Amino acid sequence: MRFDVITLFPAQFTALTEEGVVARALQRRIAEIHLRNPRDDTTDVHRSVDDRPYGGGPGMVMRYAPLRAAIEAARAEAAAAGVRSRVAYLSPQGERIHQAKIARISAAPGWVLIAGRYEGVDERLIEDCVDEEWSIGDYVLSGGELAAMVVMDAVIRLLPGALGHADSARQDSHANGLLDCPHYTRPETIADQRVPQVLLSGDHRAIERWRLQQALGRTWQRRPELLQERGMSDVEQQLLDD
Ligand code: SAM
């Protein structure tokens, strides 16, 4: 899977590309991240990427021409590598991203992501070049870089081979509509808190049932609306009935 990110601050992406799950996935060529600065696609002497807003008011707006040139160059490079990319603009006005959407994003071969700055981008760019707008939550960041990294991290860790253990993504919160169960590691006792006995039992069916019960209980306590949307699978019902 390939991401081409259009950003004025490519150095920020080292947070994602130098350490951890995503960095490993990049090394193993499970995913690719290409960074493109629209300043490199300017044609004027000042290499300007922003300008004052029509109608006045505070802040600056990212200009159409450098962004369009960057998007076209990124799509052409992806196409030359055999990848047909769609274009997404990270925006607090976009569709709010959740885990099911992350799974759909991961099914596409490539994305060009536009990280906005200032007051955002010229609206005509969205009209002409953007397929989707994505928000990572109802708050405003200074730029789309962190939002792009959030989405890429969540997507890349789902790709086959990205995580050490294939099951871990399946058990995570939101993967199956539930929150994850609690986890424990050594030592068995900390102060007067003991690890639940069932986890030491070696009885895999009992452990699976306990984990499902915990996940259901937590979801009911913390996010009851998730349970209402979800219901219960036959396998889960049978496990609880055992
Ligand atoms: N004036 C814009 C508005 O109110 O809709 C906000 C601009 S914001 C200061 C600058 C950039 O940060 C945006 O263009 C967008 O790329 C990014 N951004 C801010 N909040 C975001 C969010 N919640 N999700 C995704 N991107 C966000």
Automatic annotation (TrEMBL):
GO MF, any single term: tRNA (guanine(37)-N1)-methyltransferase activity
Signal peptide: none
A matching Pfam family: tRNA_m1G_MT
Keyword S-adenosyl-L-methionine in annotation: yes
Keyword Protein biosynthesis: no
Keyword terms: Cytoplasm, Methyltransferase, S-adenosyl-L-methionine, Transferase, tRNA processing
Domain tRNA methyltransferase TRMD/TRM10-type: 1-228
GO biological process: tRNA N1-guanine methylation
Superkingdom field: Bacteria
Entry binding sites for S-adenosyl-L-methionine: 116, 136-141
Function: Specifically methylates guanosine-37 in various tRNAs.
Family: Belongs to the RNA methyltransferase TrmD family.
Stated name of the protein: tRNA (guanine-N(1)-)-methyltransferase
UniProt gene name: trmD
